[in-house]
Design goal:
The protein is an all-alpha fold. The chain contains 3 helices and no strands.
Length: 73
Amino acid sequence: MTPSTSRYVAFIGMIVLLAMFDGFGSIMLWRYGQGEKIADSDAILKFLLGGAALFVPYGFNQMQKAVSSLGAK
């Protein structure tokens, strides 16, 4: 297999996003453990949806494969 630069860049980007999501989540849990009010439910929902963005490229790739397999028949 030949190495792909775009896949390497996507992998590094995913690691960076995952580290940011983990870092912000740890800060929120630390503040909650200290007894502080962290955020309302809308802010927490936005945070969790931001973490779901890690899986959006995978989902689009799977949809592309499904659509192209339907057209190939």
